[in-house]
Queue: 2 jobs
Job 1
Amino acid sequence: MSRRLASFFNGRPRLQAGALLAGPIGWLVIGYLGSLAVLLIAAFWTVDPLSGEVIQGFSLENFETLFDEPVYRDIVGRTVLIAAAVTLTDAVLAFPVAFYMAKLASRRGKAILVVAVLLPLWSSYLVKVYAWRTMLSADGVLNWALEPFGLHGPGFGETAVWLVMSYLWLPYMVLPIYAGLERIPDSLISASEDLGASPLTTFRRVILPLVFPAVVAGSIFTFSLTLGDYITPRLVSNTQFIGNAVFNNIVNNLPFASALALVPIVVMVAYLLVARRLGAFEHV
Amino acid sequence: MLLLAGCGGDNDSGGEELTELGKGEGQVNLISWAGYVEPEWSKPFEKKTGCKVNNKVAGTSDEMVQLMRSGQYDGVSASGNATARLVDGGDVDPVNVDLVPNYKTIFDDLKDQPYNTFDGVHYGIPHGRGANLLMWNSDDVSPAPTSWDVMLDPEVASKYKGKISAYDDPIYIADAAVYLKTHQPDLGIEDPYELNEEQFEAAVNLLKEQQPLVGEYWSDAAKQISAFAGGDSTVGTTWQYQYFALQEEGEPVAASPASQGFLPKEGATGWSDTWMLSSEAAHPNCMYMWMDWIVEPKVNAQVAEYFGEAPAQSLSCDETAEADFCAKYHADNPGFWKRVYYWQTPLADCGNGSSNCKDYNDWVQAWTSIKG
């Protein structure tokens, strides 16, 4: 039987690939895109105010609320802004680390650094956020350390969200940049130096353009992970993210929650289009 | 044997009430608050009845409603802000209290309440109750407050700016309504869960004024305990559980004393939980056995002490490990509970004939805009 199957597939590369990919692609289309489609459709439904039952018709009511209520504009604006700030922070922090790992560290040092970057991912998300909560609290270690200098920690709030998220998602920025830098041959950097470029020019004209797709890849992680989070804002601030607003509505008004959930998708699509414009996917 | 009994509420499904208990079905699937179903009393139940207990812990009333609507569970320990929604949605069936022998000795002021009995039909078995207390750090807050104004009157509360701890749920709007009931009598608030446009707006505006002063909105007990222990909150609304837990940790927390009836002068909101039976229960007999078990004097005492709330079973007060537990939690003090407004689901129907009250969906929307 297996022999016959093997001879059937022999010399038919398209069929081979098709059989291999049928499972994953089927899952992707049905499980992933299917649920997205349901989400999109549900966003146009409404809830009967008296019975609380979902009315499956077409209505733009949810989107009208979304645009008319200033609170949702605030929430979306805030979420996107903090996601951008986290991404920028992580890119700035990750680059030197990744550069050292890829170009300067010894073989051993490299291995140790990769493990060190990955290590935080081994512990639970909640434990990490709660640890930050303890550190940032009024009687926490941060205030204790800053007190001798007459300074004060940020306390709970949007700054705390930015700090904690930047910490949480940093590995997702370091690793792609590290991989991107690894792929740049050292000879290119030497050549640039030999041709008289200053280190800054080498960075600007040689390294950055080559590693840019990797930075964008990392930024997609940090940006989308921040955009979708709702537990960190709950634990270290009173701020509401898009996710919190979705959470608030999910039981009583599923259609409105669906409409809200479309916002991060739209933002991400726009983000990816801009990234493509910037040439992020050209060298991949 | 099934018999059709009076249909409660305006739902179309359900309405059937068991008249006789059959054999257990071998298992029961529960949704509960954390701490309500623990091995200490669920294992003996399994042994006694042969019903294996599968428990799903839910974090909020909203989550409980959502899980119940999945139809995969036999019962739920619903708070008053979920019960009407479940009854209206046809998610739960009436409960024949004659099949729950321990129901007889449950505290009278927990029976036939608007959150567990609809149109005279019982929809569940009371489990336990608690009040939302005013708690403060006695090192930072003096003189000792006697009113919710330390949290809600912008002038008084601004003294504790950034240190106020409020409950993170749309139902917290009712706390503002309780406050306004005393302080703005011309609004004519009767029931803090039945608010018309004007009353609702006043409550929401009060909370919007409070928002910049709030240090933290808490939703789980652990979060609030850490905020009080870490000095991030100095005054807030709390459950008895956090208050006693912080006291045990040696934190200098205080709550309204006996001379004020243990509550601020306006009274307070609170909760009373009810075990309800799913209309799609696959194991109704086991669920009935569970509902009787959980209010068995010894078990109900165990649960109440484990969770930190007043037991529903009057006979439990002789069974508690801590001798003065019932006194501490005011379980047998009806005067205390008269000043507690138990959580209820806000409905458009005001209960007095008019139907212009703000429903729960409005409360959710308003809550989002309060937090900004």
Job 2
Amino acid sequence: MTTGFDLTIEEHLAILMSREVNDWETSACGALSFIPATAMLLGREMRAPNAEIIILGSRDYSPFVTGKDFHFHAQRGQLDLFFISAIEIDQHGNFNLHVIGDRDEPDVLMPGQYGTGMLYYAVPRIVMFRTEHTRRSFVDQVNYVSGAGTSPDGVSRRTREVKVITPMAKLNFNQESRIMELGSVHEGFSVDQVVENTGFNLGIQGEIDTTPQITEEEVHTLRTVVKSHMIDSETYPNEAANLIREP
Amino acid sequence: MGVPFTSTLGYAGTDILERRPDDFKIIENPFDSQERTVVAKAMNPDVAIFHGLKGDRLGNVLVQKHGEELLLAQASRRVIVTVEEIVNSVDFEDSDGWFIPAIHVSAVVHAPLGAHPTGVPGLYDADEDRINEYVKASGTDESFGKYLNRYVFEVGSHQQYLELVGLRPELEAVAR
């Protein structure tokens, strides 16, 4: 990493994503979601003490008894922010969570995840993330559309803001043109590097902002309060112990 | 519910719909001509088979918590439940699991360790080696066919299956 804090990729993404968590809103992630879970807990410490946090499958942060209860809660419009990870993301805001390789003869077929195709419509703010920023992940057209960026005419959709956070940059989905655009580039990377590692046109016009710097307070809070809370509350305790560094 | 389909939010524009045109449609909302909605066809299996913790002679069963087995039982025409143990009476107050009344159950089968190679929380863990073997075998029709022959078709009984997979100590403790 290039920020001077020797951040793991997970720490870096969690800090950037924590800035999306707002007070008095309900933020949520699914199962097997260490990075978003960390981001939400850090966001609550740093900026949003009154944030409602849902971490599916956790002991302390999930009020739901079954997956169905959670999905129906989302369908009723009770969530404000949801985090989605993806294998591939394309220019049109589609994401692929299911197929690696050819869609008819896949190398790997991923299980589950069918709820995201609904959540991508049901939740007003979506933050997608990917642990690598490469041309194999940011593609012209995803191999399989697990979540659709654009909805057919007349189909109701609650989503009004979609962002993508990567180790290199932040992308914003333009709701007017329905095109994924470069929002800002993280410290230590150049616009050219982002362009080089993205498999589609990023619609760059004029100057691109630098993402606000990672602060010492964010890193310290993550590595002390958040890390020990995750271990104590058994919220991804092993990942917290291994992937968040010591202060 | 007994209805032919249900309306759902989302999914429009995905390959999930594209690939399963017989199960999903986008239709006009009959109550609002300005809106269209995805509808999903009702799934009513002829037979559902799932594993539970306890069963009694009347067909009441207790299944592990946090699943959707009750919904599955209600949707299916016949329901077979394999259970870890048969008891005199399954009590719907039993907090070890969730109660499914006999009215939804066609048959109860005594099958200790019946969830193998997956696990039952609190009783035994998933058998990771065997799960990996299953995943590997599922790569091609040929290897999966071999897997089925070895673990399903050529096995005469549940006991033979358990012997074939070689019980680990903690599994044997439960089996006794």
